[in-house]
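thread from #wetlab-drylab

HS: before we spend reagent money on co-crystallization trials with 1,3-dihydroxyacetonephosphate, can we at least see a predicted complex? here's what I'd submit
DV: go for it
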Amino acid sequence: MRKKIVAGNWKMNLDYTSGMSLISEVLNMVNDEVRGDQEVIVCPPAVLVYSVAQLAKGNPKVSVGAQNCHEAESGAFTGEISASQIKSVGAQYVILGHSERRQYFGETNELLAKKTDAVLKNGLKPIFCIGETLEERNQNIHFQLIKDQLAEGVFHLSAEEFAKVVLAYEPVWAIGTGVTASPEQAQEVHEFIRKEVAAKYGEEVAEDTTILYGGSCNPKNAADLFAQKDIDGGLIGGASLKSRDFTDIITKFNK
Ligand code: 13P
């Protein structure tokens, strides 16, 4: 049975005080709403990962993730953070390949393959993001693009390693725009992704792979998205900054 996940990506928002308030509220609110097959992940900015992880430690339903890491183990990379450092402060996940990292920091599939290796080597799990721009969708090259992002970013992994990967489909045109992919549009791509995984690793691995949707997901549209057979939850940006909205989204899985 694949896991259902709602993950919050705080991006570069919140300072220490507001971040602590938000995680405290989330921890107070989520308990009764999270079933055994569900997991909540909170991904704060790197400087808050330790403090958030400390607070979340006692809650088996809430995990913590970073938003990026460097591909090297350690060394002279001023300003960067390694997977082992993230692991050492109590996180379990790392978001990799977010479109903002690809767009503003030039991250390529080749680099992301190395980051994926670093994350797995350190006992963390990647939340690996893929997705097309509006231009790419309009040119009808989005399926090929997603195919390449998977092939070059994560398909070098063994089946055993890949089993630890969470995929997130985030159409760039839906991120922070208020324009959500329709449930049908998202399902079409999620089904394609699962078929790609099946072709590479077999049906069983594909059935167990959690594929999240991200892009203007909110308490109003989450239920329809999560009802799609290949959508296993969400990677939430803006709505994860409000405890009520974030915890509302968690309740939108079919009971
Ligand atoms: P929004 O939910 O703000 O559109 O952001 C989605 C996202 O990028 C999550 O990683």
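DV: The chain has a mean pLDDT of 96.
HS: ok that's useful, forwarding to the group
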